[in-house]
Amino acid sequence: MSYNLLKGKKGIIFGALDEKSIAWVSAIRCFEEGAEIILSNAPVAMRMGEINKLAGQVNAPVIPCDVSSNEDVENLITKAMEHFGGSFDFILHSIGMGVNVRKGKHYTEIDYGFNVKTNDISAVSLHRVLAACMKKDALNEWGSVIALTYIAAQRVFPDYSEMADAKALLESIARSFGYHYGVKKHVRVNTISQSPTRTTAGSGVKGFDGFIHYAEKMSPLGNASAADCANYIVSMFSDLTRMVTMQNLFHDGGFSFTGVTGPVIEQMEK
């Protein structure tokens, strides 16, 4: 069902890889709610995924961008402003890559060069995008920026490894830049801490299947789906949430504040 919550709004969505991606589902929901969007992803991810299929569905141009490159990011923002005919209203940062995780390196034995790359892509990229937008005055007043994160930024999930540190940095950047952008132009910047979701990227984490079942049992409402998250993102891009900024918003069916549940106890007593 559409409510036209984003009618007349324009924005960039990063990170749509395939139909399992939260960014993919969010792009469709934003389009359904009346938004005009641009899709962006890293060139290598574009070759691996199906972003052109999504572009046809939501009538959006696709602009490649390596978010670890200042030049690429500034080029994307310039092209976005040219396409939209000026400034725009929202950004979804759904970007992450754990290089040490991909290489199978244990957290206690990470390669620090890989770790720098992980942090640059997964966290510092948000700062780079926001800085480019501020420099070019690309975001409209009361614009909204959302970055996707995970509760491993606050609690230990051993196999999430270096990505936990990257997500903690991402959340800090959202708070800090959220302050400055709020003062300067009332732009709000938040992170959404989503339930474990069966995305292509998420499924690559060791033990993911077991954990997603555990999280389901530990959440009073169950795990939030990609579609649920997309709806929440739409609400955060809308004018209904104009006074929410610098927050880490848990969207996890209650997992983040639950100590234990009956189903978990029953499982342990078997």
Tell me what the structure shows.
With 270 residues, the chain is of the alpha/beta class. It has one domain: Rossmann fold (3-Layer(aba) Sandwich), CATH 3.40.50. Helix content is 46%, strand content 14%. It has ten helices and six strands; from the N terminus they run βαβαααβααβαβααβα. The protein has a six-stranded parallel sheet with strand order 2-1-3-4-5-6, sandwiched between helices. Helix 4 (70-84) runs parallel beside helix 6 and helix 6 (112-136) packs parallel to helix 7 (162-185). It is globular, with a radius of gyration of 18 Å. The model has no long low-confidence stretch (mean pLDDT 95).
The first-level CATH class name:
Alpha Beta
What ranges have pLDDT less than 50 throughout 5 or more consecutive residues? none
What is the tally of beta strands? 6
User: So how many helices?
Assistant: 10
CATH superfamily: NAD(P)-binding Rossmann-like Domain
Q: How far do the termini sit from each other? A: 43 Å
**Number of separate structural domains:** 1
Helical content band: 40-55%
Main sheet overview: 6 strands, parallel
* CATH architecture level-2 label: 3-Layer(aba) Sandwich
CATH topology: Rossmann fold
Q: Give the DSSP E fraction (strand runs of 2 or more residues).
A: 5-15%
Shape: globular
Order of helices and strands: EHEHHHEHHEHEHHEH
Rg to the nearest angstrom?
Answer: 18 Å
Overall residue-averaged pLDDT value: 95
Oligomer: single chain
